[in-house]
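Hi R.,

Here's the chain you asked about this morning:
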Amino acid sequence: MKSNSQFFHEDILMSNILETHVPDGRQVDSHLLLRIVEEILCKIKAPTVVKACLLKLANHENSQSEKFCSGIQHDIGNADAQKEQWQLVHQVSSEMLLSSSKDRSSHATTMSVLELLGNHSWAGKVVLVLAALAKCHGDFWLIARLFQTDVLALSLAMLKGLARIFGADELHQHWLESLRSLAEGMVDVTKIVIEFEALPMQYVTLDDGALAVMKENIQIACYWMIRSSISCSSQITSMVAMSIKELSLTCQTWELWSLAYKINQLHAHLQKQLDDFHLHIEKNIDSQLMHLFEEVHVDNQKVLRTLFAPKDDFPLLDAFSNQKVC
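And the predicted structure, written out as tokens:
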């Protein structure tokens, strides 16, 4: 049971979060960014496992990498059109690095990132932040994947002091596992946020309270995902800088596991709410279709729109004029 002070603290936090949110309709390619992020954050093995499996999986991974790269290059299309979002990823990454400073808290950096991304949707915010984390995370893991077999990667690992991290030390292995678990949880929550924002809301007739609760939970989840990403980035930076001692590493690992637990709890709760929304929308669409087929229509546009374009993302076009049918 939450105390009154906890509710008061959460109300203040929500108020501060919402003050930063001033969306103006600008878009980022959330699906493209998330595909890249997931490839970096969720397909990583512990270095000791990589060494054992490297030769066995080489041909398979090369084949998968070729397919992935081909798909990404096709999706990126015009590089100029993607320029703004790559710049934002760099800005967020730079902002997150400030959390490594001793005089700035994770909360302060989180609020600063929220202000930086204030004009974006909640899905846009979290996917850009995850992309910034993947940028930091990927640099770290690229060396981890290659230092056993590539001289250049080994030299970089030695210069950065990373060889000790990628060894068999149990403390470092626990830290790496907690980092991976948290990253996977954040990707799962991001998928829910993107999916929720894509729902055809015209079919949502739930009471305003249910919708408001879902939105509030997403906003809180976004806050904690940004804060968790900042903690991950800060710890990776500290690890590379060799500023984490044995006792501190245990505390850092515990922090990541705690954040992973919180993110997983948020994911489970949001998933249940999202499933309820999907079920509700499906029932409403089925009910509307039954009534539509009982009515007399001048043409079939209303029926087709209900069947194929519930959000009108793909407008119906006249086959001869190629004009949108109103």
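The longest helix spans residues 246-294.

Let me know if you need anything else.
M.
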